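The data layer described in this paper is built around a simple, fixed record for each protein. We quote a single record here, exactly as it is kept in our systems:
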Amino acid sequence: MPVKVEIRLDAESMVDYMLYQIYMSKAGVITGVLGILNMFLAVAFAMRRELLYGLMFLAFTMVIFGVIPLITRSRVEKKVSTSKRVWAPVTYEFSEEGVVTTTESASGKASWKAFQRAASRKRILILSNASKQAIILPVDQITEEYTQIVDLIFKNMPAPAVRINRIDGKKQS
């Protein structure tokens, strides 16, 4: 049975998606690894009673895990808030055959084979294809249809490609 939802993306959902893309990229992973390395160095120097070096690496850790994400979030929010595309309504119809996307000016259909990854974040559900185009579904706009959509995703996509949390909080993969 097809599931039809109308979505009007908001700035917060787009910010969540863009931050997800940034931090899941190679540069984001490298940044995380450097932050963890700095944290271990801070602890190592503190244990050797070289407090100045320990504080220096602790400061680097705070910059990597605190300041950089805040700057990134504010820049992404600024960029998204000026985009007119974010506010346009989009209708998605999920079925066994795939996903039909309809906007005011165009319509298209993608089979389930076109999608390579499905993931959930705190506020959004993401379906992305090989060319990094994505369907972004704010969870608060699809509360009634969420379970049906997630069931269709699990049924029609390979298990390793799906990283979605169920509403009850259990991670499925």
About this structure: Residues 51-81 form the longest helix (31 residues). DSSP finds four helices and nine strands in the chain. The mean pLDDT is 84.
